[in-house]
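Re: beginner question about structure tokens

> Can someone show what the tokenized structure looks like for a real chain? I only ever see the sequence side.

Sure, here's an example I had lying around. Input first:
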Amino acid sequence: MVPRVVSRVRPTLLVFLVLATARPASAAEWEGALKGTLRLLADTNAPRDFTDGGTPSPGVDPALSVLGSAEGKGTFERTQLVGRYELGARKYAGFSDEDTLIQAGALEASLALGTEFGLGAEGHVKDRRGGTRAYSDLGASAFAEYAPDVRLALRVRAGARRFVYRPDPTANFGGLELGVLGRYRFDRRHSLSVFGDWGARRYGPLARPRPGVESSPGRREDGALTAGVGYNYKGPLTLGLRYTYQEVSSNSYGETVLRHRVSANAGVRLPWRMTLLAQGSLGVTRYPDGIYLSPEIILVEEDEGQNSLSLKLSRPVSERVDLELSWGLWSTRLPRNDLRYSRQVFGVGVTWRD
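And the corresponding structure tokens:
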């Protein structure tokens, strides 16, 4: 993960209301945490190239990765403030064009209305600089929550989003978003969640007409749908399973895409105070028009819409310091032209927690 430059998040009106109606600072409860990780990496495909069968691998390139995060929460009589900031940087020895800096921040304020309902506002910003996928992603929304007991929680939200893709301004978009998230806990070990988001994206350039159609459909407009279900288990083994369906329907020829994705994560304690964490995902992507014309936009570092598998083994050496070994694999294949993508990243690092 690499750090990005984050714009200042301006406090919302609700934040001011929260601060105005909160109890005195002496009656508030404050929590916070700091975390930092330093890793030495070996990347087998630093430029993230697709190759055919006869193209040699770009070779292994070492890199240095630095990650840091800070989070805090303030709880008052009826209100709560939650904030988080993350910073990451990666420096390659041979592929300096892939050096990356990423910053991300989020702020949420909520107000309890009785014992079951609540209102709030949230904002987030993520900025990535360097490499070939520089972008800024900003959003803000208002939400309402319903939580009649500790087992059930439901949140609905409505807001706006702005995305700026620096290598290609034609991929910039803005629009409204709606979302819903529900969670049900069967008991302290088993829980089920459902989620869905829909966004109306509006672009600057004109949409591409379908072949044989002379009239332009106007400016490009997309409808982005994400829906899924997840299951979590907490016991001797921590387990999470998730299925996600994504559909981007566009009036621009070649831009519509459908994705099915299954992901899983697990964690288990091992002898000698060691912990093993594993993550994996499999996906199927389909382009109804037979092609995909948009530039490849990577929104999450190391989660490139590929099939993936990653492992991390950690062991504490003190109360606040852990040593870790990590490995990750990402791969995919484009069936129409037989291009293949494969990348492995090996790492050794140390993590400090406050």
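Each token stands for a local structural state, so reading them left to right follows the chain. The chain has one helix and 16 strands.
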